[in-house]
Every structure is written in structure tokens, then in C-alpha cells.
Write a structure and sequence with these properties.
Largest sheet: 4 strands, parallel
Radius of gyration: 19 Å
Number of helices: 12
Number of strands: 7
Strand order of the largest sheet: 3-2-1-4
Order of helices and strands: HHEHEHEHHEHHHHEEHHE
Shape: globular
Length: about 290
């Protein structure tokens, strides 16, 4: 088990919960997650820095101790620089055994072509990098997949499963809302962090993924965040940027139209549009076929 001083670093106020934490649904879900982690044993956590992988890394480090949990962040042009900075700060704050590793998905022509299997190609590159550590330490690769993710078109999940990776949050029956609730109760600062999928998810299938495009999207989203907008996406359609914000922020974004247009045109976009349907995670992914029965 992790020594008490180490545990005190994981979260605020105190990693072991907040005052008045009554036994309830979140408590039971956390217990299931702890049991799953204990059953898996030593592991390599793919730590993107998002709310899911952050919770997994924190609970695993508490349960098994830092020596049994190696947290690794894959670095490539599809990771926004701000996300890398945030995960580095998180790892230091929480006392995680953390490092980065370079992934090579951009060297894969099939990934660059950006067809419907791009996510699978990316996950293969991630597993190639993480398995070096899991083989060396004789442990399992785990990913921060929650039960809601199973309803989306994510071919990378099947690749990971086939290669022996495990999804502790799924095994514990935890969805995204539960991840946030547990994280909040435990005092993890990531509990309300906006979802931040890889930058390639902003590029429609069929449009090549390039370092230049990924950088343009990253800078565009950073520029809009600096205006005070929260959860958002800048979808890249050549010289057109389609901006998605939460429905509750549509009016505010429209009021800042001049600032938004000015900033995005300065980054090379000729046209800027505001999507009136608002932010939808994964809306550039193919639609899942209807299930029979």
C-alpha cells in the first residue's frame, strides 16, 4: 500500500474523500474499481490527463503504490501542448510515477489518410509504445475507458482489447457521470475538466492528418479558451473552422463573434462558422450500425 504521506498528495482536500462522504452509489462504485485494480495487480496506465485516465491513475496509485503503477502519457502532434503541461503538473501534484513516451502514428500512411479506422491505427501505435514497459515489468496495460464510451464508434477500443489491455472503469460498471462524481468526492481537480479528445478528432475522415493542421487546431482552440469559453471544438474543414461550444454558451459565443473570427482568421482560417447544434463529442465519427434484436 502507498505510505500515508504519499496518499495525502493525491487530491485536495485529502485523497481519501471529503467530509461527510456517506456510503452511496459512488462509494460502492469506487469499491468495485478498487477491487478490480487489486485483481489486475501491477499496471501501466495510459494517462492522457483527461478525467477518466486521471481517476484511474490516482486510484491505482493509492491502491497498489507508485512502484506498481507506471503512468505514461503518449506524446505526438495530436496531443495539445496545454494538455501535456496539465498532465505533467498533475503527476507532480499527485506523486505519480510518470513519464512520457513518443508515439509514431504520423509515420503510418493509413493513419495520415484518416479513414474510419484512424482511431484503430492510433491505438495500435499507443499499444506499441506502452507494451515495451508492460513487458519489461510483467504487468498489464490499462486504459481509461468508461461504459459510455462503449456506445460510440471507437475501433481503437477493440484493438486494445485484442492486444490484452484492460478497462478497469468498464469492469467496475462506471460511466462518465460516475467518474466525475467520484473524482469530485475524492477532491481530484480533474473532476470537472472538459473532455479533450485527440486533436485528430477535429479533422473529418478523408481529410489527411498533418502536423500543420493539428497545430492549427490546437492554437485555434487555445485562442477560444482564452476568451473564457469552456468545452469546445474547432472542427477543421480546410480553410473553414466550424466552432462548437456547449449549448448554454451559444449566446455568449455569438456575442463574441468578432473576437472569435479575428482570432481564427489570424491563424489561417478564411471562414468561421458557429454550429447551432452545440458541442457533440465524436460527431465526426461514423454512425454505429443499429443493433439487431
Amino acid at each position: 500500500m502507498t505510505p500515508t504521506p504519499q496518499r495525502a498528495r493525491l487530491g485536495s482536500p485529502g485523497f481519501d474523500g471529503v467530509a461527510g462522504w456517506d456510503p452511496d452509489r459512488e462509494d460502492l462504485a469506487l469499491s468495485r474499481l478498487e477491487h478490480t485494480i487489486e485483481e489486475i495487480g501491477p499496471m501501466v496506465v495510459a494517462l492522457s490527463g483527461g478525467v477518466d485516465s486521471a481517476l484511474l491513475a490516482a486510484v491505482a496509485t493509492r491502491q497498489l503504490g507508485p512502484s506498481a503503477v507506471r503512468c505514461i502519457t503518449a506524446v505526438s502532434p495530436s496531443l495539445a501542448p496545454s494538455e501535456l503541461q496539465d498532465v505533467a503538473s498533475m503527476a507532480e501534484e499527485w506523486g505519480l510515477r510518470w513519464q512520457t513516451v513518443q508515439t509514431e502514428e504520423m509515420a503510418d500512411p493509413a493513419y495520415v489518410r484518416n479513414d474510419a479506422q484512424r482511431c484503430a491505427r492510433c491505438k495500435s501505435a499507443l499499444l506499441d509504445a506502452l507494451e515495451v514497459f508492460s513487458y519489461a515489468e510483467g504487468c498489464v496495460v490499462v486504459l481509461g475507458v468508461n461504459t459510455d464510451d462503449l456506445n460510440d464508434y471507437r475501433p481503437g477500443q477493440e484493438v486494445a482489447r485484442q492486444r490484452g489491455a484492460r478497462f478497469p472503469l468498464v469492469e467496475a460498471g462506471i460511466d462518465k457521470a460516475m467518474v466525475r462524481s467520484i473524482s469530485k468526492r475524492m477532491g481530484l481537480r480533474t473532476w470537472d475538466k472538459p473532455a479533450a479528445a485527440c486533436l485528430a478528432s477535429r479533422i473529418p475522415h478523408g481529410t489527411p492528418v498533418t502536423v500543420r493542421t493539428l497545430s492549427q487546431v490546437a492554437r485555434a482552440e487555445a485562442a477560444l479558451h482564452s476568451l473564457g469559453l469552456g468545452q469546445l471544438r474547432v472542427r477543421h474543414y480546410g480553410d473553414t473552422a466550424r466552432v462548437e461550444v456547449e449549448s448554454a454558451e451559444l449566446c455568449g459565443a455569438a456575442a463574441m463573434a468578432t473576437q472569435i473570427v479575428t482570432r481564427l482568421k489570424a491563424l489561417g482560417y478564411a471562414r468561421v462558422t458557429l454550429d447551432l447544434e452545440g458541442f457533440r463529442s465524436g460527431n465526426l465519427s461514423p454512425v454505429l450500425p443499429a443493433k439487431e434484436g
